[in-house]
Specification:
- The chain has a domain of about 170 residues: 3-Layer(aba) Sandwich (Rossmann fold), CATH 3.40.50.300.
- The strands form two sheets. It has a six-stranded mixed sheet, sandwiched between helices.
- The protein is globular.
- It starts with 15 loop residues before the first strand and ends in a 12-residue tail after the last strand.
- The chain has about 250 residues and is α/β, with parallel strands linked by helices.
- The structure holds adenosine-5'-triphosphate.
- The site of adenosine-5'-triphosphate (ATP) has 13 residues, from strand 1, strand 2 and helix 1.
- One of its GO terms (molecular function) is ATP binding.
- Keywords: ATP-binding, Nucleotide-binding, Transport.
Length: about 250
């Protein structure tokens, strides 16, 4: 991406896709300042599945929005390929989002008047090196349903479309906000399996934010967040297959 700040080669270790450094996010509500994130620092490594877990209100969505270029920090740096996302313009942030980030949300966020295929194609058009939309829908098991509208699909199927839509961009970072939150247990497990399959097959780096600590067992690393601060970072030497977790 275009850089406003000169890249500092020493700032980015070779295997970090993104570095969060001393990040603070404060929201002002009337006369009250709410400090939601406090001096957060961590890396997201290339090719890893990273889970960020914490109770409601701990700041998970706030950090996801910052990493996804939907918001900017009050202080600190977010370094992506040597560029500080905290300092770029709104249009550069939009370009970063379009080209490098895929989002999977709890409630799918599909465009209701577009078919599954059209939803995926719309995302592909935004990316510079997209993958094949029909192939991605086939990979998520929806080859036969690609001309259906979201309302004609089950929740699990809609989440599969949302995953295909995120992955078709071939993003550097796949950001998942409670990806199983609206699904029943079995459907949730299979959505998780799909995400991990893309991580294995395409090497997509995945960040999953969730309040569901069971999901963390499938990740390579887990960051525990509480009141806007990191309280623990756990490495799972042997992440569990989704079929072995229960919630
Ligand atoms: N735009 C905003 N203005 C004011 N306060 C905000 C704003 N966004 C978030 N907050 C506050 O920041 C805190 C953290 O919110 P956030 O949504 O990041 O938490 P979360 O861990 O994702 O919670 P949940 O699991 O319930 O979604 C909450 O107290 C919330 O009220």
């Amino acid at each position: 991406m275009n850089e406003e700040e000169p890249a500092d080669e020493n700032d980015l270790s070779p295997n970090a896709v993104l570095k969060v450094r001393d990040v603070n996010r404060t929201f002002t509500m009337g006369e009250v300042e709410v400090e939601v994130l406090r001096d957060l620092s961590f890396d997201i490594y290339d090719g890893e599945v990273l889970a960020m877990v914490g109770p409601s209100g701990s700041g998970k969505s706030t950090i996801l929005n910052l990493i996804g270029g939907l918001d900017q920090p009050t202080a600190g740096q977010i370094l992506f390929e040597g560029t500080d996302l905290a300092k770029v313009s709104a249009s550069q942030l939009t370009r970063y989002r379009r080209q490098h980030v895929g989002f999977v949300f709890q409630f799918y966020n599909l465009v209701p008047n577009l078919t599954a295929l059209e939803n995926v194609l719309a995302a592909a058009q935004l990316a510079s090196k997209p993958l094949d939309a029909e192939e991605m829908l086939a990979k998520v098991g929806l080859a036969e349903r690609m001309h259906h509208f979201p309302a004609q699909l089950s929740g699990g199927e809609q989440q599969r479309v949302a995953i295909a839509r995120a992955v078709v961009k071939n993003p550097k970072l796949l950001l998942c906000d409670e990806p199983t939150g609206a699904l029943d247990f079995t459907t949730g497990i299979s959505a998780l399996e799909l995400l991990l399959q893309f991580n294995r097959d395409l090497g997509t780096t995945i960040l999953i934010i969730t309040h569901n600590t069971a999901l963390a067992d499938v990740a390579h690393r887990v960051i525990h967040l509480r009141s806007g601060e990191i309280v623990n970072v756990q490495v799972n030497a042997q992440p569990k297959p989704p079929a072995e977790i229960v919630w």
